[in-house]
Amino acid sequence: MFKNTKMLWRVIRRLQFDKIFLVFLLVYCVVALVIWWIEPGIDKVGDAFWYTFAACTSIGFGDVVVTSVLARVLTVIITVYELFIVSLFSGVIVSYYLELIRRKENEMVAKVVDKLEHVSELPPEELKEIEKKAKKLADL
Description:
Structural class: mainly alpha
Number of helices: 5
Distance between the termini: 26 Å
C-alpha cells in the first residue's frame, strides 16, 4: 500500500499536478474573495466560498446567485478552470494505473527470466507453469 502511494505521488509530481492544483486553490480563493468584495448579494466570506464551490462542482444549488457582470465572468472562468483540473486529475489516475500494470508485468517477466536462467534445475511441473506464463505473455 505504501509503495503504491509513493508511486502515485511520483506520478503526481512528474506530471506537475501538485503545482497545478495549488495554483487552482489559490485562484479559487482569490475568485471567492473578489466575488465577496464586489457582489452586493453576498455579505459573508463563507457565502462567497460556498458559491464558488457550488459553481466549480457544477452543483449550482441556487441559494446564492451573483448579479454583477464581473462576478458572472469570474464564475465562468473558475468553472472552466475546474473542468480543466478534473480532466488533468483523470489523466493522473490513468497514468498511475498504467504504471502499476507496467510494474506488475515487469515483475512477472523478471520471475520468468529468473526461472529460465535456472531451467535445467526445474522440475517438469514448473516448466509447464513457465510455458503457460510465456503463452500468457505472448497473448499480451
